[in-house]
Design a protein that fits this description.
By secondary structure, the chain is α/β, with parallel strands linked by helices. It is built from 14 helices and 16 strands. It is globular and about 75 Å long.
Length: about 475
């Protein structure tokens, strides 16, 4: 799926219409929620006004979308009506079933183009954008190799713009004459740029406005993005016919009563990593800081989230080598790897990065994350949960939720409670605190301006590529 599909954590876990979880690429465009229609009623919707001259406000919205979730949470049901298709939205506005359409700006611009051609009515846009939807390419979770290729194509478009590459027919490689199939690792992902163009050549025109989040990040502003949760408060219904196979890796972890977490540390690290401690920032008897300390804290937060606040169940293993650490993860010696640098490995899933290096954008920018195995469907929910714990620290900072206020974190009954407690995020944040607290604890001498390691406030540049595309043939 490629047009207008917003990435939410809910849809990774259990999309509401199918009951299945899906894989999302890095967002290729950040769309804003807006209103389009009769000028008077657009102002009413924008101001949330429903009385006097606004008493006849009626908003059309597409069913089962993030726009519907927003409208439903913002307006009483008598002020909106649901449509099942884009065409129905247009018809309902023209025939006065509603006087405003609420949706993402991309769709509204498309509707505007149609109505300017086919209708003599005068409609207008709202002045303000209410929320942001990260639009991504959606693939089935059962084919991690294909999902990985799709994501790296998106990365290639970003990389092309960062490196000032352009469409170049002389470099466009033709695979049609091959006698044997290529492996994913053999694909020249930069063909996406050579044959089609860089991001600015693909994202162009008024349907692709390059403002705010849709600009290339130059390293001076925050890249930590709190992916929207969606509705994680949907109760898990035991009567639902939902496949339990995706829970098997979580089941194995729960049965052994421990989480085995590998931590990548620098060469000659010389510090002891034994276990999580009730004193945040302490592991065993040695205080840790920097990326290694942050990585350990994420391991411990993950354990606390899975085991009702008990971080003592986490077994920590230090690795000073990327190759041996990924081998241990692939062989199941560790359940999750902390401090792994994001790279082009289709056998693994990388969480949202929790630390970025300070390299210039013209080179590979190092990105550190939690890594899980992606070879089978049984790890999908575990991978999504691991990612959720990382994103939760960004969310906590954005919402001013500190360690002391961790009870303000949302409950997550969308998971089966016998595998993931609905208090999991509260327990995780009670351990780590917000990302701001976590960063200050592990980088105590760092300046207040954290560069890329700031939470994006939804209006700073967010487009960037991950490492791995500078190597020829990748």
């Amino acid at each position: 799926l490629l047009f207008g599909d917003a990435h939410t954590i809910e849809r990774e876990i259990r999309e509401r219409t199918t009951g299945a979880g899906f894989t999302f690429s890095s967002p290729y465009y950040y769309d804003g929620m807006s209103f389009y229609g009769n000028e008077t009623y657009v102002e009413c919707a924008e101001e949330r006004k429903r009385h006097t001259e606004c008493s006849k406000l009626k908003i059309c919205v597409l069913e089962k979308t993030t726009a519907f979730d927003f409208i439903q949470s913002t307006f009483p049901s008598q002020f909106f009506v649901v449509a099942s298709s884009h065409i129905e939205l247009e018809d309902m506005l023209v025939n006065d079933t509603c006087n405003v359409i609420g949706n993402g700006i991309l769709l509204l611009l498309d509707i505007q183009d149609t109505l300017l051609r086919d209708s003599e009515r005068n409609f207008t846009f709202a002045n303000e954008v209410d929320k942001t939807d990260p639009l991504a390419i959606v693939t089935r979770s059962t084919d991690p190799e294909f999902s990985g290729i799709v994501n790296w194509v998106v990365q290639a478009l970003f990389h092309g713009e960062e490196q000032e590459l352009s469409k170049n027919a002389s470099l466009c490689q033709n695979y049609t004459n091959l006698t044997t199939p290529l492996q994913a690792s053999e694909l020249n992902i930069l063909n996406a740029v050579h044959c089609v163009g860089k991001y600015s050549q693909v994202c162009r025109g008024k349907l692709c406005r390059r403002n705010g989040l849709n600009k290339i990040n130059d390293g001076s502003t925050g890249l930590l993005y709190a992916t929207p949760f969606g509705d994680l408060g949907r109760e898990y219904d035991d009567s639902e016919d939902i496949d339990v196979a995706p829970y098997s890796r979580l089941s194995d972890i729960k049965k052994k009563g421990a989480l085995n977490c590998g931590v990548i540390v620098p060469d000659n690290f010389g510090k002891k990593i034994e276990r999580c401690s009730e004193t945040v920032g302490q592991v065993g008897t040695r205080e840790l800081d920097g990326i290694a300390g942050m990585s350990v804290d994420y391991c411990c937060a993950l354990g606390a989230a899975l085991f009702f606040g008990d971080s003592s169940v986490v077994n920590l293993t230090a690795f000073s080598n990327n190759e041996t650490s990924f081998a241990a993860l692939g062989n199941g010696i560790v359940d999750v790897l902390a401090g792994g640098e994001v790279e082009k490995k289709s056998s693994f899933r990388f969480s949202a990065p929790y630390y970025y290096g300070n390299e210039t954008r013209s080179g590979d920018v190092s990105s550190f994350s939690l890594v899980t195995r992606a070879s089978t469907e049984d790890g999908l929910l575990f991978s999504s949960f691991v990612n959720l714990v990382v994103v939760a620290t960004f969310y906590a900072e954005k919402e001013s939720i500190s360690k002391k206020r961790s009870k303000k974190m949302p409950l997550i009954p969308i998971f089966r409670n016998d595998f993931i407690p609905k208090w999991a995020l509260r327990d995780a944040i009670f351990y780590t605190g917000s990302y701001h607290e976590l960063y200050k604890k592990n980088f105590p001498a760092a300046p207040d301006d954290r560069g890329r390691n700031q939470v994006n406030d939804d209006d700073g540049p967010q487009i960037h590529s991950f490492p791995g595309l500078l190597v020829t043939g990748n």
